[in-house]
């Protein structure tokens, strides 16, 4: 029989693709999900052979590199839980910062907002729930991703209008936007070599990668679409690759956007770009 703390450390040592502190956090998350146990239960004693089979099954999946969010089918975002699948990116802390920035900078009521590349719907759903009577749309090329987004909206009681559309081939069916936001694919193909298998093998490449020869592909297209869809003084918010802050900023300036700025995340990395049309 071992106590909770010892079990966490023992199992975390088997998650070799993660740093130790991250591995321990994942095991704690798994134990809380299956057993209702948290860090406060450090001295509680457990018999490994009595642990439920479902917990062992999920632990073995975790050891393969499968993200815990996909194992459990949910991920936290801005204080809420969102359903996830292999058809959607897992919501990340940096995107929470993007959403928080939009909420903080736009306290007005009845703004019209579109999120391009919506995935789980975490951005438009959160904006609908946190902003003042906003009219919110979420767009994605993937029907499977939109199905997940729609389920999340139903569970969280968010009135978001969903659009399936390929922005590289089609024009936006919406005009007079106050805010256009996007966390588009932005990782060059060559970046795969530096990525963990838990991302490469389990998250959709469609939502991650862009050609090495044109890493700003989606930013350029969305900036062009924004010029037609945004109201005068409408706002464009991007999440970006940390290496491309200056390039995206210059792109927006070339396209005629004003008040352009690069914004760093809490880790001091270039993470967001803002422009006003």
Automatic annotation (TrEMBL):
SUPFAM superfamilies: S-adenosyl-L-methionine-dependent methyltransferases (SSF53335). It comes from the Bacteria. Pfam families: MTS (PF05175), PrmC_N (PF17827). GO terms for biological process: methylation. It catalyses: L-glutaminyl-[peptide chain release factor] + S-adenosyl-L-methionine = N(5)-methyl-L-glutaminyl-[peptide chain release factor] + S-adenosyl-L-homocysteine + H(+). Substrate binds at residues 183-186. Keywords: Methyltransferase, S-adenosyl-L-methionine, Transferase. Gene3D superfamilies: DNA helicase RuvA subunit, C-terminal domain, Vaccinia Virus protein VP39. NCBIfam families: hemK_fam, RF_mod_PrmC. Methylates the class 1 translation termination release factors RF1/PrfA and RF2/PrfB on the glutamine residue of the universally conserved GGQ motif. Belongs to the protein N5-glutamine methyltransferase family. PrmC subfamily. This is Release factor glutamine methyltransferase. It comes from Algoriphagus faecimaris. The gene is prmC.
